[in-house]
Design a protein that fits this description.
There is one protein chain. The chain has about 350 residues and is an alpha/beta fold. Helices cover about 45% and strands about 15% of the residues. The strands form 2 sheets. It has a 5-stranded parallel β-sheet with strand order 2-1-3-4-5, sandwiched between helices. Strands 7-6-8-9-10 form a 5-stranded parallel β-sheet, with helices on both faces. α1 runs antiparallel to α14, α3 packs antiparallel against α11 and α10 packs parallel to α14. Bound molecules: 1-O-phosphono-beta-D-fructopyranose. 1-O-phosphono-beta-D-fructopyranose (F1P) binds next to α3. The site of 1-O-phosphono-beta-D-fructopyranose has 18 residues, from α3.
Length: about 350
Amino acid sequence: MAERGFHTFSEINSQPDVWAATLAEFQSLIPAFDRFWQQHPIERIICTGCGSTYYLSLVVASLFQALNHIPTQARPASEVVLFPDVVQLGDTSTLLVTISRSGETTETLDAVEVFQTRAGGPVLAITCYGDSALARQADFVLTASAAQEQSVAQTRSFSSMTLLAEALAGHLAGLDVTTVLRTLPAIARRLLDEYRPLAQTLGETMAIQRFFFLGTGFLYGMACEAMLKMKEMSLSYSEAFHALEFRHGPMSMVDEHSLVIGLLSEDAQRHEIAVLEQMQWAGAHVLALSEKETGHADVARWHEVVLGSELPAWARTVTYLPVLHLLAYHRAMANQQNPDHPARLDAVVVLKSLLTS
Ligand code: F1P
């Protein structure tokens, strides 16, 4: 049996190579995707998934809205199945984007069935398994085959499917995505090498007992995913909020045993930093992930990850993850957990179909 955390650690560190392979796979799928897109005049999109892949749906929806100006909403697959009228499934001009690492999660498969029966629109699947049940149900499949994993918690699979979504939204916006995104593997390598010591130190600081992940815009879904990684891998108290929502109640939980992690945007950074400063005054430790230095290097209990990607905000979205994966991994190890097999979790939730009476 592999050493505790072996798979998670190697999957986190393989992200630069796996991202490069994912971009190459995307490139090879572009001609077929263009044909699919031309056949289906899309006016509206619903993105769906479960757990991590629901959080990825939030990211994908924000990308489609901002880059492609297509009205898009993200819903957990169970909501699509159980509350189709609340979701409003639409008609044949609606595209369902289903996201699932395994392509075998019951609720996600059920959501496709409900959508196909009630709306009749096309289904696009984003998955790591091109031979999965979801892939067979879908009209078009984008795969990140190199990102398949042995660990229960999604790391490189999530980031690689994020990359596919970025590439898709960029391509639909008429951008040469291969050129824009080609520096991402090298950026991930640098971030993993440069910030592993910081992630390890913070992960092993047992005086920190609560983790709060804050993000806005494209980055709210990423904050949710980072929160889930911390919870799943290390069984730690971990929550995610829209950055400015944090003042409206949740901040009452902050004390000197808290780490407040800000995934800083460029557009709203001044407001996000004000929240982090307020939490630092309240005694919290702060970790700011930002494209450029924030000028807080000398502030007590303030730590920083400088992304330095030189990419537009949408393309940079995925770069926030690798260091936060390391943070969750090191806290899991310090908590004597095995991040490869988190307690009470399976890699896929397979249930009796929600549609059977
Ligand atoms: C979704 C998921 C994971 C979660 C857990 C159970 O799987 O909810 O996000 O970490 O392991 O499954 P999938 O549909 O993306 O394969």
